[in-house]
Amino acid sequence: MDVFKEIKRLRDELNRHNRLYYQETAPEISDSEFDRLLRRLIELETQYPQFYDANSPSQRVGGEPSRGFESVPHSGPMLSLANAYSYDELIDFDRKIKESLEEKYHYTCELKIDGVAIALRYANRKLVLAATRGDGQQGDNVTANIRTIGQIPLVIPDDSPADFEIRGEVYMNIRDFQTLNDRREAAGENRFANPRNSTAGSLKLLNPQEVSKRPLRAFFYDLRGVDDSLSHSQRLELLEKAGIPVNPERKVCENIEQVWDFCREWHEKRNSLPYEIDGVVLKIDSIAQREIIGYTAKSPKWAIAYKFPAQQARTILNDITLQVGRVGSITPVAELEPVYLAGSTIKRATLHNEDEIARKDVREGDTVIIQRAGDVIPQVVSVVLEKRPGDSKPYVFPDICPECASHAERKDGEAATRCTGGLVCPAQRVERLKHFVSRGAFDIEGLGAKHIEAFSNEAIIKTPADIFRLSDRADEIASREGWGAQSANKLFAAIDERRTVSLERFIFALGIRQVGQATARLLARQYGSYQNWRDQMDTAQDRESDAYGELVNIDGIGPLVADDLLGFLGEDHNRAVLDDLASLLIVEDFKAPDTTSSPVAGKTVVFTGTLETLSRGEAKNRAEALGAKVAGSVSKKTDYVVVGTDAGSKAKKAGELGVMILTEQEWLELIGSGG
Ligand code: IVH
């Protein structure tokens, strides 16, 4: 057997079937037959590596995951299109065309695919480059990702032009997008808002292996680098012949009236398509005429996009409910009388937040206009005031969480209202628990995110304390699928190992907003023991107290962090969970570094002005390593103020309070590293 001939035959055969399958949707063989041919090819290619070819149909998901995308310049700028929203605007556009052309002209009308723009380069009839639009001048080299799209030929037939560029749109069918989203949700990942976002997200993946699992497709609407005498519509035909996907729903029109008919037809029929379109693009068909008409800086003057109006419907808003997200933000949702819109029945729409409801004055019982503008999540656009029932009342946004009855709060300058019941709120439970067992927190071996998810769903673990009571349910755990007495005991042992925990880990594990590892450490250092911390925080709830002053005066903690911290600890629910948890654990006192010989152990220091030999961070670390506390401002409790150059009000305040002032040199001498 001539191996190379056989390899070539298999490649041609597979390319042909690929084309029959994707282009002509008329497959001649079954999927399993296709797989058999492909496996045979891969077998031969592995056995005879000398016949390797990057463009073999076996090589669609080749290549290692990349660390980022290389930026590549476009052959010519990737422009955008001007928009028209009405028949009048189209007439206007046509009038300008008429003015600049002397002879007769035609328009090609195409659907405007709602996807992501892409440019492909073929050299020697092989796909060599795929680039995203980027800033229009240069884009990301996403060749490896584009090669995974089965519809796009890696090699084109010999009777096609050899070197050229094509531009088009990558997209996803709505059905495929929905399936993908459902799968993501089941895997605990975020849903994409719409097929376009999902497509853009997929193209940005660094691993082509992952991209190949995304149902990407493409249509091409531009061919460059060929003979100018070929009109646009002829070029599209040429692309089709080369096996490149071109949208079949297009039409050459004689005049703007025909164009308008095409627009109206597709406005009506848009929901019958398997993919999303947001309008019609009309382009002058002759390339020579295009050059006469010319360009603006942003877009060609020979083409325009007619954008469909947003798809709207009118229905009744029965109720406003609230959804609590996984990190506590509370989103109001309009519960609607079901209404059919843009291909599906809509029962709910987002109302975003408190301000949106107030701005639109949306009330329960109102008749509302909803719309779907590209995005899959429908929105409430406005209220039909004439239809408002007489007894209607303005909506009052609640100040307690609908899930756990904790206090809900909205910070100045923020749009979202949040639930403060982090540890008790069922909506937030899973995320909080995952954080609780994570690496920097309790770090329990064998109790990862997956187990937390399962235990939490089955309400075996509701609060962090339940983790430390898990061994009370030993039989139940051991009899779970995939478990057994041995793995259960192993888990209990790992949990027991973490019953003793440092104060800083303990505080960090609580997942309080803005209290990360560094802040948790500052708190542990300042307050020393769990009990002291709790007591001081209780006292600090009074913003006039010294305890509050001490808290906000810790360098690195200001009033905003203090607000979140005290807000959390001010909730009865949270306090109960904390007490419960602490009763099952030994929370170790903060271990100050060994500072028995340190002259500044336990002293509070404030640095001010520019220091000469140390950066502020170094000075702080050094002082803390010697057991000193570093504060941000001067108070009665301050022991030393170290002044650099340009020291301002803090030095003055130290003088007023009679706090000892040291120069940088004096400080260095005090701590024993003076020069
Ligand atoms: S022609 C000079 N034709 O719409 C720009 N664009 O809003 C030539 N698009 O960036 C574009 N379908 O990503 C053209 N049939 C079609 C299109 C189309 C979708 C996108 C394209 C472009 C954007 C402009």
CATH architecture identity of the largest domain: 2-Layer Sandwich
- How large is the count of helical segments? 25
Please estimate the helix content: 25-40%
**CATH class assignment of the largest domain:** Alpha Beta
Low-confidence stretches: none
- Global geometry: globular
- Helical/strand content category: alpha+beta
Q: What is the total tally of β strands?
A: 24
Mean pLDDT over all positions: 90
CATH superfamily annotation of the largest domain:
DNA ligase/mRNA capping enzyme
CATH topology of the largest domain: D-amino Acid Aminotransferase, Chain A, domain 1
Rounded to an integer, what's the Rg over CA atoms? 33 Å
The main pleated sheet reads as:
7 strands, antiparallel
Approximate strand percentage: 15-25%
| CA distance, first residue to last residue | 85 Å
Report the bound ligands by name, code or SMILES.
2-(butylsulfanyl)adenosine
Total number of domains:
6
What would you say this structure looks like, in words?
The chain is α+β, with helices and mostly antiparallel strands and 675 residues long. It has six domains: 3-61, Helix hairpin bin (Helix Hairpins, Orthogonal Bundle), CATH 1.10.287.610; 83-307, DNA ligase/mRNA capping enzyme (D-amino Acid Aminotransferase, Chain A, domain 1, 2-Layer Sandwich); 312-387, Beta Barrel (OB fold (Dihydrolipoamide Acetyltransferase, E2P)), CATH 2.40.50.140; 422-498, DNA polymerase, domain 1 (Orthogonal Bundle), CATH 1.10.150; 503-588, 5' to 3' exonuclease, C-terminal subdomain (DNA polymerase, domain 1, Orthogonal Bundle); 604-670, BRCT domain (Rossmann fold, 3-Layer(aba) Sandwich), CATH 3.40.50. The protein is 36% helix and 20% strand. It is built from 25 helices and 24 strands. The strands form six sheets. Strands 12, 13, 14, 15, 16, 17 and 18 form a seven-stranded antiparallel beta sheet that branches. Helix 18 packs across helix 19 (530-540). The chain binds 2-(butylsulfanyl)adenosine. 2-(butylsulfanyl)adenosine binds next to strand 3.
